[in-house]
Design brief:
This protein has about 290 residues and is α/β, with parallel strands linked by helices. The chain is built from 10 helices and 8 strands.
């Protein structure tokens, strides 16, 4: 019996959807996330744990640019919706701040304490809070872009699907550009996966929370990136999402990142920034898809 597409067993899904299966040095790479984040938090001015919602998990960490009126970039961390935090991803702020961008790192509650649908709501609330409050931290609310890695890539897609005017009373174009990285855009594999005891996702939630079937009501320039060494399914999901966006009239491009796996693809945000970060900076500065 087919579970999802041509997959017939949980083991087959595990091999394609568990990034650790293809990256034997996962532990070392994740340890770098933590050590580099600690270094960046010590080095850069920042305000951590600023509440945007009613629960303890709903906080943002803000790394302001040196000059006021700076563009603002909102980053959403990964961890398959059940692990990690904004604190463990502070390293992504380094290259952004170095290039004059205020970085807002979103923290959110995790499964199974909450549902994926609730995580989507929290991330939307974080963007709404940022729009309404970022001027106090030197950012320009008219120049907000977003990105996210892995589960954060999925959440970035769901931010694009938000009816900002109807649900939050914000401009339809509150997000000026987006960069989902190594995201999951069709959640249909996960009820069958090893993750289900933690995610506890229902089929109604799969339908409501898959970016592939919840497309943006407003055309936001979007770059969908994925590591060139990632699994065939991670790459296919990114290509399929780009195709759906284009069919829907959204300016979108597919960006495979050479020589990068699922975990080191975000290393481009360290230091002065690698090629992926430079692509993001072009998007931030131009509000358009780079050539």
């Amino acid at each position: 019996m087919r579970l999802y597409r041509d997959f017939t067993t949980e083991d087959e899904l595990f091999e394609e959807y568990n990034p650790r299966f293809l990256v034997p040095e996962t532990s070392e790479l994740l340890a770098e996330y933590l050590s580099e984040s600690e270094r960046v938090r010590t080095m850069l001015k920042n305000q951590a744990g600023i509440a945007f919602g009613p629960t303890l998990a709903e906080v943002v960490d803000i790394f302001p640019a040196a000059e006021s009126g700076s563009p603002v970039h909102v980053f959403i961390h990964g961890g398959y919706w059940h692990s990690f935090s904004s604190r463990a991803h502070a390293f992504v702020a380094e290259a952004l701040v170095a290039n004059g961008v205020t970085a807002v790192l979103v923290n959110y509650a995790l499964c199974p304490q909450v549902t994926i649908e609730e995580i989507v709501r929290q991330c939307r609330a974080a963007v709404a809070w940022t729009f309404r409050n970022i001027t106090e931290y030197g950012g320009d609310p008219a120049r907000i872009t977003v990105s996210g890695h892995s589960a954060g890539g999925h959440l970035t897609g769901m931010l694009l699907a938000t009816p900002w005017v109807a649900d939050y009373g914000l401009p339809a174009d509150v997000i000026k550009g987006a960069l989902p990285i190594s995201g999951l855009f069709d959640l249909a594999p996960f009820p069958y996966s090893w993750l289900q005891p933690k995610l506890q996702i229902t089929w109604d939630q799969v339908r409501r929370c898959s970016p592939l079937s919840n497309l943006p009501p407003h055309p936001v320039p979007t770059i969908v990136a994925v590591g060139g060494e990632e699994s065939a399914e991670f790459q296919r999901q990114s290509r399929d999402y780009v195709d759906r966006l284009r069919e829907h009239g959204v300016p979108a491009t597919f960006l495979p990142v050479p020589d990068r796996n699922h975990f080191n693809v975000v290393h481009d945000f360290r230091g002065a920034g690698g090629p992926l970060c430079k692509t993001l900076l072009e998007l931030i500065q131009t509000d358009a898809i780079p050539d």
